[in-house]
Task: structure prediction
Amino acid sequence: MGVIVCPGGSYFWLDPYCESVKVGRWLQSLGIAAFVLRYRTAGFWAFASYYRLLTGQMTFPGPIQDAQRSIQLLRANADRYGIDPDRLGIMGFSAGGHLAVHAAERHDVDYLASLGIKADQPLGPSFCVSLYPVVTLTDERYVHHRSRRAIMGERFSAEAALGDSLSLERHVRADLPPIFLANCVDDPIVKYQNSELLHAALTSAGAPHTYIQYRTGGHGFGASDSHGTEECRQWKDAFISWLKDNKILDNQ
Result:
């Protein structure tokens, strides 16, 4: 099996370690092939300035194109990397968690066609793991404004249809792959209700998923052995048990 790892960073940048390299090394230590995805982001200059008010530039659809391209390439080269193409998942943190679920929800939408790339492999992940994700881009009570600004540009108020299409809780279906979802109530960055919105939508649709809500741990702990709290770091063991329960990872 293999896992594509999508670091967080508010769609402006990518976490350099705890949600990327550290996660990949941890998965590899378990005998799971890991691939850190350096998907396109808006960049620091877009964060520091508001030049996109003039250009109208958006980051979308760059990140989802990159996610689909990684799935396509890994499946096409499964023998080379020693992975089962039917057990290729995607794991994301924060904004990367949004991207991971977006890839799962839109598994039948070909974002690569506009790049002139023929989708010769299924573009959806076999399973999805999302930690403290950004979920809604429309519910003003819970929106993570920095992520919305990054993915949609400075004119997001004029892009209501796009905001709706990128709000994960609005596009849940029963035919999604298994989803593992976890976050913390004391998250100071992305309001914990984001995950509750997604959990409620998944439950209503009858989509296969597991949701774990920790009381403490905050945000950005990734696969760290020291960041967050002892409570939230239990997600790693819970995730491995979930893989085995869903017959994705063989019991050893």
Observations:
- The chain has ten helices and six strands.
- The mean pLDDT is 96.
